[in-house]
Amino acid sequence: MRTAEAVLSALRGAGAQEIFGIPGDFALPFFEVIERAATLPLYTLSHEPAVGFAADAAVRFHGGVGVAAITYGAGAFNLVNPIAGAYAERSPVVVLSGAPSRAERSRGLLVHHQARTLQSQLNVYREITCDQAVLDDPATAAEAIARVLRSAREHSQPVYLEIPRDMVGVEIGMVPALPPSPVDPDAVGAAADEVLARLAAARSPVLLVDAEIRRYGTEAEVAELAHRLGIPVVTTFMGRGLLADAPNPPVGTYIGVAGQPEITELVESSDALFMLGVILSDTNFSTAARQIDLRHAIIAAERQVRLGFHTYHEVPLPDLVAAMADRARPSGTPAHWITPPDPPTGLIADDAPIGPTDIATAVNDMMHDHGAMPIASDMGDCLFTAMDIEHTALAAPGYYAGMGFGVPAGLGVQAATGERPLILVGDGAFQMTGWELGNCRRYGWDPIVIVFNNASWEMLRAFQPGAGYNDLPDWPFDELAGSLGGVGIRVRTRRELAEAIEQAVATEGRFVLIDVVMERGRMSDTLSRFVTGFERQRSAAAGGS
Ligand code: TPW
Ligand code: MG
């Protein structure tokens, strides 16, 4: 096989379902093969950050790997931020970069798009991917492709493949099917036994789940295990949306003082907190009402299981879950089961101005009437407001917290699932990547986009109330929608919001942008509690009170 075809079929074998990309001269030969071979559909977008966000969101929904194909230098450096986010949030995106040919590399001239040395790009990506290969040697390329794709799957993190443009058509042989990295089943079994014993001995065990359970495709197994063990399941902030389709969905989302008090109490008073696939980040834990002592928790993540002061290494999450399921004895509903209040429904369609909770209420009403939609959310108050939306599949940068994710992620979700997504995005974040909606028409995508337009970087204002630079001018996003091929509706009252949502649902085949004008300074209760909790923790860490 030639390099390009070998890469494409190996990608498909690793579970890729599509490629997002933007070509450039160093990548043109490879893109030509992508189009001609049609192994995977190609979606071109407008700016590389969107390529990365879309590929990240797509893999969050379909599993396997996501693919972001770009040109050398100018393209690849534009992709750094979304790949850093994918690394942090454990999303296995394959970066496919074009590159100068082997002859160009040895000519001694600087090559266009070159930053410092020809390796600068590789060096940058070493920092934010878990494995890398430059396919410049026909003798080793096939093996390298196999290894790198295996790393993406096993570590559930991005990887980097660089293809010199003259290598595209070079024969490299078949990409071998590598066996998984060695795992000792006895170690897995011992870890499973110990975790089960700890849970069985506990008064109020709780299972806290996060990103990895989805990335490793174990959601159904985890749901079944929790049910068998009779342990309540809670998601982290970052893990919101997990297990949405499970027969026993999570009882709620843990956000410390920012979340529902019942959930906070349940998690923080647990004497055996089993954190499965959890990212130990400040957005997940900084708002704790009382300190969670991680030394007493059980943490299974990043191929390790930590109990108190000892650690089992090389225990992949799916193996642990399977071993626990084999050994688990069923038990009934535990005494500490809780039922927190339902999300708000029944929007009062009057002439009152719209607040964040009204949007959540209107979305809940829509999903009740017309069925659930997958959600992509940006960072900003929209994500905190999403905590009041019914527990639904959600892709959001809850930990890395990079703005600009929402709109391109929504496009990735539609490409990955074929379902019409709901996109939640602030006006500030929309200014970064909202233009990508212009690509909907050519692919037949029709997301419903709700812009939380408070003419403000509101979340920053919450941290720094006096600063004038957090005021944004009012951009007429509704007017832009038409020229991008969609439908724009500006709403100011709850009645208009309810009507706009009905119109959006009825308008299929084109994206609909609902530009929700909100008062500056009006934020969701979850965000204001989050900010207070976060600041309290920060000042405590700095030695304040
Ligand atoms: C890529 C820092 C975090 S939140 C925020 C900024 C600038 C304001 C968000 O404004 P928006 O939403 O979208 O209008 P809202 O609800 O707060 O009004 N650059 C990047 N990512 C982050 N997180 C920042 C800056 C930031
Ligand atoms: Mg805003």
Characterise the protein shown here:
This protein is an alpha/beta fold and 545 residues long. The chain has 3 domains: 3-167, Rossmann fold (3-Layer(aba) Sandwich); 185-327, 3-Layer(aba) Sandwich (Rossmann fold); 356-529, Thiamin diphosphate (ThDP)-binding fold, Pyr/PP domains (Rossmann fold, 3-Layer(aba) Sandwich). It is built from 23 helices and 19 strands. The strands form 3 sheets. Strands 9-8-7-10-11-12-13 form a 7-stranded mixed beta sheet, sandwiched between helices. The protein has a 6-stranded parallel beta sheet with strand order 2-1-3-4-6-5, with helices on both faces. α3 packs parallel to α5 (80-88). Bound molecules: ligand TPW and magnesium ion. Magnesium ion binds at residues 380, 426-428, 454, 456-458.
What fold name stands as the CATH topology of the largest domain?
Answer: Rossmann fold
Count of helices? 23
Helix percentage range: 25-40%
The H-level CATH homologous superfamily of the largest domain, spelled out, is: Thiamin diphosphate (ThDP)-binding fold, Pyr/PP domains
CATH architecture term of the largest domain: 3-Layer(aba) Sandwich
Uncertain spans = none
Q: What is the CA–CA distance across the termini? A: 65 Å
Radius of gyration: 24 Å
Count of discrete structural domains: 3
What's the CATH first level of the largest domain?
A: Alpha Beta
Class from secondary-structure proportions:
alpha/beta
Strand count: 19
